[in-house]
Amino acid sequence: MDTARRNDGAMYECLLFDMDDTLYPLSTGLNLACRKNIQDYMLEHLHMEESQVPKMCLDLYKEYGTTMAGLKALDYEFDNDDFHAYVHGRLPYDKLKPDLVLRNLLLSMPQRKIIFTNADQTHAVEVLKRLGLEECFEGIICFETLNPPKQVNNESDSRILCKPSVEAIEAAIRIADVDPKKTIFFDDSARNIASGKVAGLHTVIVGCSDLVPGADYALRSIHNIKEALPELWEAEECDGHQVIKSPAVETMVQA
Ligand SMILES: [Mg+2]
């Protein structure tokens, strides 16, 4: 029995966390505010027809993973940093409060923990700071990680790599240098979860109580993680070895 528990607990070596609407609830309103800012950007900077903007924003998001990726695929020309500064720069970050419960949960888990977000680094760092979670993750895989300047500036390929493409998830697995069979992926997006499963990850849909296709677990809130996955803590009890935690959040770059 002891051996079985040991195998169970050591099953997971790494936890990949989406950030927005996964580490904090949708009810903060950041998501809505972000969408409004994207639509304003499409109007003001890309001079699109006002009546078409809301539908196009949503259609591109559905088709390409992010509206930004869709705009690039349609050959709209704009600076990625300008776009991110515009849509995230005016977000109501004061709605995000330090989450000590989540912080303690994360710090008590022995596995490696990495953020995997489609957002840019500035936004990711700001959100983690506001939530008081900066020390909980060894690194951040974000827009800049998956889309380094060299690739973005290549005119023949302005394609943006982002979730839910399986290719983006496989890139994150490679950059984090993890075994997908020993990694759990947490995300609030059903399509990201479906792709995560295709990439071979264990998956947890966050923010709803019902399983979605490709999800192994469903958590209404990330705060329920210990009730749903107690084996994550058993690993520490069984193995007895300490995992060294990096004190600072760093952006992981592709080697
Ligand atoms: Mg999300």
UniProtKB/TrEMBL annotation:
Signal peptide: none annotated. It comes from the Eukaryota. InterPro entries: HAD-like_sf, HAD-SF_hydro_IA, HAD_sf, Pyr-5-nucltdase. CDD domains: HAD_5NT. Gene3D superfamilies: HAD superfamily/HAD-like (3.40.50.1000). GO terms for molecular function: hydrolase activity. Keywords: Hydrolase. It holds the Pfam family Hydrolase. NCBIfam families: HAD-SF-IA-v3, Pyr-5-nucltdase. This is Haloacid dehalogenase-like hydrolase. It comes from Senna tora.
